[in-house]
């Protein structure tokens, strides 16, 4: 078996030894990533913060017994965070929510910053309306910038299945956001009729 | 790689070739270089990429960061060693004290025995004196 090169290996070892500077570095490096993942998977800031906190607390418990070479620590963190997100998504389906997750109400948009916030909110809205697996594929590949192999492994699917989820997800997003970019054709792809 | 595959990759991964499968990047670049019209597919994908990038990334609150840092693993191993050293030092002092007591008792017994022997010898001498005194 080929040992996996993990850029976080030394950092995790030091965290496990109780090095406060290493813990600080790990938090500044991973917390924004995991928070963004949870926020985009759940579309809810408070729930995303809970997931991020729980993930990092699990990381603290894991660090002293982390075995290098088996997996990348970043991939493990993503796995933990995604499991926590899916737990919450399942609970939402079991207990239907009275109101959808919070969306910023920006009202009129008189300047560029507010326009950008409005666009961001619409993108987030389109993202959260995607089927869970399509959203997961888009979030992992586009926002978290994982390689196709890493994302497919995390989702326990083949690379071909990942590409199919990505294509369908991006096509749905293009349709949902067509008003924001009139030049963007909903069915852009030539010869890919999925 | 054929043009259809390039379209499929743009559809799935977007316009940024860094997000494409590493094994297909070089071929894609050479294909686009040979046929610049294929850039249209990338431009379409780039428009969606730009929209997706408008989604703001949340910033962790200072409170969350502080809570996590407070819960981070502490240097237990080092403290454990210090505890062990303190324990060994304490045990050393206790052993030294015990040894002192044992030595003290032993020495006292030895000295007392010598004194007792001297006393017996002296008393035996006195007995002779007493006999002289009694017998005249």
Short description:
The complex is a heterodimer of chains A (194) and B (136). Chain A has 194 residues and is mostly helical.
Please explain how this structure is put together.
- The complex is a heterodimer of chains A (194) and B (136).
- Helices cover 64% and strands 0% of the residues of chain A.
- Chain A starts with 8 loop residues before the first helix and ends in an 18-residue tail after the last helix.
- Chain A has two domains: 1-102, Rna Polymerase Sigma Factor, Chain: A (Orthogonal Bundle), CATH 1.10.1740; 106-194, Winged helix-like DNA-binding domain superfamily/Winged helix DNA-binding domain (Arc Repressor Mutant, subunit A).
- Chain A contains eight helices and no strands.
- With 194 residues, chain A is an all-alpha fold.
- The radius of gyration of chain A is 19 Å and the shape is globular.
- Chain B has 136 residues and is an all-alpha fold.
- Chain B folds into two domains: 3-55, no CATH class; 94-136.
- Chain B is rod-shaped, with a radius of gyration of 48 Å.
- Chain B starts with a helix and ends with a helix.
- Classes of the chains: A mainly alpha (194), B mainly alpha (136).
- At the A-B interface, helix 2, helix 3, helix 5, helix 6 and helix 8 of A face helix 1, helix 3, helix 4 and helix 5 of B.
- Chain B: Keywords: Membrane, Transmembrane, Transmembrane helix.
- Chain B: The chain crosses the membrane at residues 85-107.
